[in-house]
Amino acid sequence: MSMRVAFLHPDLGIGGAERLVVDTALGLQNLGYTVDIYTSHHDRDRCFEETRDGTLNVYNISPPFPRHILGKFHILLAHLRQLHLTWNLIQNQKITYDVFFVDQLSTCVPFLRKLTGTRVVFYCHFPDKLLANGVFIEDPAKRPKPSLLKQVYRYPMDWWEELTTRQSDVILSNSRFSRRVFKASFPSIRTVPRVVYPGINIQAYEAKANLGDADVKLIASSRPTIVSLNRFEQKKNLALAGHAFAKLRQREEVKANTDLERLRLVIAGGYDPRLKDNLQTLSSIIDVIKYYKLTYKIVTPSSSTLFLDNLPVPVTNSTFSGSDDADVVLLLSFSTSQRTYLLSSPSIALLYTPTNEHFGIGPVEGMCAGLPVLAVGEGGPVESLGPTSINADSPLSSPVDCSPDLNNEDKDLRGAVGWLKPADSDIWASALYEIVSLSQKERTQLAERAKERARRTFGMDVMAHGVEGALKEAISKGLCGRIDPEGIMWLILGILGTVLGIVYSGVFFLKD
Q: CA 477 to CA 483: how far, in whole Å?
């Protein structure tokens, strides 16, 4: 009899965390597990196809709580939304599970354990307490100090995060970098997380692009293409791609080359019009494009319900007959067929711009597709692209700056399989010129090494077996001790009442 597993994920949209959930669920299904996914938000127009075509069983339980109030209280409302999801899951007496797999937000962990008696595996991407102020900075001395009011607001949130995470039966981390940060951030948790790298369905990245697909036709081009795959969020630093691309095109060597002078950039990623951050990021990228006097065009999949007329910026800054004429294409919430096309010819490089990203699935996607990858030399990409000799369990004194050994003709996978550079647009422009100047032989050899490392370390089957081991370990501990549901609900109300009181007091203090 197969084991039944329930996944809990806050928002099943399009992003690296969501890709991990989907591929983990698929991997476990392939191993014979029955998997159900519970989420508080699942937009069928902004999600991965496996979550809407019946491949995966998804329960979308919409909460009565908004994502934010006037752009504030995101984490408090995220706690409430997940408690609502948890309560509805527990109330459904028709389905029982052998183990729970909780992703990103640990709010529900003690309640799942104590109200159902079932063990919980928690997959920690990154401590939320470190992301509350934007981009993570590892050196505490260099982190911006939040206001007193925000410190008062965050204190119970951070305490709750550490308390609930500590209740997990097994804790997983998505990289050695994340594990290192986890240990430093949660001193009361003695458990050392087990590293299970996100894995992807490599076969899906070996598929050939369907040039007759309606979505592909929207972005198809004969121009050599540089691709960036990342959500439209400020912390993803997409502006770095725009600056580096523009500076590359300004180089005299590029202007003199009839092929390279036609280079274009496609920035593709999840876009949610509900999020102010997404709107501001799109606007800021267009400002960069205009600064360099480049042309752009915004595109969405043919099935998208996102109306371009409602965007806060013009859809284009010129007149085109098609996307082939634009220097920069901004693709909002791409489809699977579009991703497949962008990771194949005529694309010649993939950019990954975030700094201190806890893992970063983008570089692995590029590796699987055999594309040269350029990423910031900090955080998770150091482990996926860099030399294996780098000790990711210790803090780096400076960003990694390395390139692959293009003279390495054997199958040695210990060296770098991509470019890791500091987040400086001039340095990136130089690295990009090196990449676009690669010979076909160099590209082929590098692609073979990158694909082989991806198969050995980041394949969906490798991840599935890693997660399976964690699930079995949790189940082997037996059932948890259960407590009275009414008692724990009063506990929840008491904690939330205290938090709301603190928040109200802070808001009142601000008005005064």
A: 18
